[in-house]
Design goal:
Elements lengths: L5 H10 L11 E2 L10 H18 L1 E3 L2 H9 L3 E3 L2 E3 L4 H5 L7 E3 L8 E3 L3 E4 L7 E4 L3 E4 L2 H13 L18 H15 L4 E2 L5 H15 L1 H6 L3 E6 L5 E2 L1 H12 L3 E5 L2 E3 L7 H22 L6 E3 L2 E5 L4 E3 L3 H17 L3 E4 L10 H17 L3 E3 L4 E2 L4 E3 H19 L10 H7 L9 H6 L15 H6 L5 H15 L7 H17 L6
Parallel strand pairs: 2-12, 7-19, 8-21, 10-11, 11-13, 13-15, 14-16, 15-18, 18-19
Antiparallel strand pairs: 1-7, 2-4, 3-4, 5-6, 8-9, 16-17, 20-21
Helix pairs in contact: 2-10, 5-6, 6-7, 6-18, 7-9, 7-18, 9-10, 10-11, 11-12, 12-13, 13-17
């Protein structure tokens, strides 16, 4: 396929624009966010974050990052970096408030920031679970299945990143298979590797092949989810990934990982101040690497069962904390990533969905733009559930309706329907109903709305059984989105060459 006709034509030639299922690219928020804390409270939180950075500082295990911070005016003593009050926030000022992440199919490109809301699958689980096989280590085949499912499901806007760990592939090489799977088996936006700077660089290089080097240099096409080693430590692998993505004009998603009582204090205000400080240091590093490069302000607050030391998810304190973190992200003018369908439940049960609903509602109300872990999360993130993936995605479908708010147009008041029906009669056959019956209400994939007798006679099937049927249905119907054969060959060639250069390592 000839690469002619300008940048837009070259992008279309590389991506197979126009392919794939009909789906909203992302949701526009039409409901207000929840402002929990007043301006005085936000001032106080930012002041305490400044206290942490000025008095205690943050460890940075990266000589290049240390030099960048020192050259910018921070105080560097060995690996400890301290910032004057307000300094680190000023270093973040060049980051854009909104940006677009291009997808391989431009119809699936997503906005980050503003009123945009993007749902993405869960991330990072070494195990998978399904109704037929139970809990087991994830494989590359499982990874590819989840990429295919995310592409098929209209309520998920993003392919995600490490949707499960393919533990049958060496750690040193699996990032290549994962990025290739996102690019070949989906045409939605995706995330690359962050576990080593060289793996981040490979992710960017594969993106250059798929999108074109000139597109990657001027537009965001890949995200990298980087975690602080909380409390108050940035290790070299993560800072190296930040620098790699930022230098290529791609977007790091900067995320503290705070379990109150372990990686942070047991008190919510302290956790929020710590998270804000840690996040801004990561954002600042990306801006020092390449001013104006895109970045996402990340949030991951959770708690501990203090009697046992086990992590907990879907609890009320982190949900409240997310509301405040959302206010802080808006205050510094950055797109916000929050986490979604959290649970410590081991299977798809009532606990799983109660905790997931609490977590997702907090993400919606706090104003999150990029909601990672929207589908599949089980067992505190250790397992990716096939059936949970479907039920969570179904919930995302309901949230599409919730986020739209209420339409007060004349048609919605149904005055012609009232005139036709009059008092004491039903609207079921009214012309107004017939005009809207296909779109009036959200239609669940997994809920059973039949009578008890119908449900009983159908075998008393539970939600996980219905979800398992949906997994099988989607995977059976899957057809890969088109990709230019020359681009696919170039992706495979790069992957093969890099694998030949890398030793097999399993850690």
């Amino acid at each position: 396929m000839a690469r002619t006709g300008g940048r837009a034509a070259r992008l279309e030639a590389r991506t197979g624009a126009g392919s794939g299922p009909t789906a909203p690219a992302f949701v526009r928020r039409r409901i207000p966010v929840y402002e929990l804390v007043g301006e005085d409270g936000l001032d106080l939180i930012e002041s305490r974050a400044d206290d942490l950075l000025a008095e205690i500082g943050i460890e940075v295990h990266d000589d290049i990052a240390l030099r960048l911070f020192a050259d910018a005016g921070a105080t560097v003593t060995d690996q400890r970096v301290r910032f004057d009050r307000g300094h680190v926030r000023s270093l973040c000022a060049t980051a854009p408030a909104t940006f677009t992440q291009l997808a391989r199919n431009p119809a699936h490109s997503v906005e980050m920031g503003g009123d945009a809301v993007v749902f993405a699958p869960a991330y990072g689980s070494p195990f998978v679970r399904d109704l037929a096989g139970g809990r087991r280590y994830g494989t590359l085949a499982d990874f590819e299945n989840f990429v295919k499912l995310a592409w098929m499901i209209p309520w998920l806007h993003h392919s995600g990143g490490t949707v499960c760990e393919p533990v049958d592939v060496p750690v040193s090489k699996r990032h290549l298979d994962m990025v290739y799977a996102h690019l070949r088996y989906s045409d939605k936006a995706f995330m690359g590797s962050v576990t080593h700077p060289s793996r981040a660089a490979d992710s960017v290089e594969l993106a250059r092949i798929a999108f074109g080097a000139e597109v990657v240099d001027t537009s965001c096409v890949v995200l990298g989810n980087v975690n602080v080693n909380s409390p108050l430590v940035w290790d070299g692998a993560m800072t190296g990934a930040i620098r790699t993505y930022a230098a290529a004009n791609q977007a790091p998603v900067v995320v503290p990982f705070i379990l109150g009582g372990a990686m942070g204090p047991v008190t919510l205000a302290g956790d929020i101040a710590q998270a804000h400080a840690e996040t801004l240091v990561g954002v600042a590093l990306g801006q020092l690497t390449r001013p104006g490069s895109p970045v996402i302000y990340g949030n991951f607050l959770s708690s501990m069962a203090l009697r046992s030391g086990a992590p907990t998810f879907g609890t009320p304190e982190p949900a409240v904390g997310s509301l405040v973190v959302g206010q802080l992200a808006r205050r510094v003018g950055l797109p916000l990533r929050c986490s979604g369908a959290f649970t410590t439940a081991k299977v798809l049960d009532g606990q799983a969905m109660l905790e997931s609903a609490v977590s997702m509602q907090a993400a919606i109300l706090c104003g999150a733009n990029f909601i990672l872990h929207s589908a599949g999360w089980l067992e505190g993130g250790l397992a990716m559930g096939y059936e949970k993936f479907i039920v969570d995605a179904d919930h995302c479908g309901a949230l599409h309706t919730y986020l739209k708010g209420i339409d007060l147009s004349e048609e919605q008041f149904a005055m012609d329907g009232f005139r036709e029906v009059g008092p004491g009669k039903h609207f079921f056959g009214a012309q107004h109903t017939l005009r809207h019956y296909e779109t009036a209400f959200w239609d669940s994939w997994t809920a059973d709305n039949a009578s008890y007798e119908q449900w009983r006679d159908d075998g008393e099937r539970r939600v996980e059984e219905r979800a398992a049927d949906k997994v099988a249905e989607l995977l059976a119907a899957y057809e890969p989105p088109p990709i230019d054969a020359a681009v696919d060959e170039e992706l495979r060639d790069f992957m093969d060459r890099r694998k030949a250069e890398l030793p097999d390592t399993w850690y």
